[in-house]
Amino acid sequence: MLVMLASVSGAPGVSAAAVGLAALWPNGPGLVVEADPCGGVLAARFGVAQEPGLAGLAAASRHGLPSGGPARFVQPLPLGVHAVVGPGAADTCAQAVSVLSARPDVMAGLAPVVVLDAGRLYPGSPAHALLPRVNVLVVVTAGDTAHLDHVDTRLPALRAQMRSPHLGVAVCGKGSYEPREISGRLGAPVWAHLPADRWGAAVLTGRLAGPAWTRTRLAQGLRGLGAVLAALPPRQPGAARAALEVVR
Question: How many Å apart are CA 136 and CA 37, to the nearest integer?
Fold first, then answer.
């Protein structure tokens, strides 16, 4: 299963959400792949090297995934989850994402569940080329009018690039609208509400440590999101779009 998390404007915490979602995925952690063309942050946040990582995977993928599989490009993070970290330099990271976007099956074959952190899906982002291959796209957004306006204008183009019907929204922080209102406006399900939680966010960004983070409100929201995504039916090309489901 290839799950992409991305925003369309602002910085609502996509990287932290991707790490937490992978760590709390039902029946065992998924693999985080940092595919943000603007540059990776996980290596700096968690004190690991930038290589092995995305740049090396991209270079190797030009000739097909080498024997031995993806393990040589994966690093453990302190939260009990593994990651393919992106280089901090935006130009290097964008080039690696461009190479891998042309070989999406390499990304999908890294692990049974791969959580892609695509950062901000700005127009022209090389991560757009991965959309036809992903099983699920989660658009992470703040719940205020300005950010929802941006999401509303971008969703039609994102849908047009996807072959899967599974596109939904995760709303971060406080907002003025109920999930049904947001879903009705966007024509997309609200799969999760990720509350403002300084402790949970601090752990997921490498500023704090400790196993108790899995009991935070943010962790509960991410665990619920993982349960919803894991229960989605398999992608069927050409099938009608799934009925909207709103997760309260």
Answer: 19
Question: How far is Cα 232 from Cα 122, in angstroms, rounded to an integer?
Answer: 26
Residues 6+ apart with CB under 8 A from 64: none
Please list the helix, strand and coil fractions of the chain in percent, rounded to the nearest 5, in that order: 40, 15, 40
Whether the full predicted model's pTM is greater than 0.90, yes or no, is: yes
Domain ranges of the chain: 2-230
Class of domain 2-230: alpha beta
Task: Please tell me the distance from the alpha carbon of residue 247 to that of residue 94, in angstroms, as a whole number.
Answer: 34
Residues in Cβ contact with 91 at an 8 Å cutoff, skipping those fewer than 6 apart = none
Q: Residue 223: count other Cβ atoms within 10 Å of its Cβ.
A: 17
Task: Read off the pLDDT of residues 9-58 as tens digits, 9 standing for 90 and up.
Answer: 888 899 999 999 999 999 999 999 999 999 999 999 999 999 999 999 99
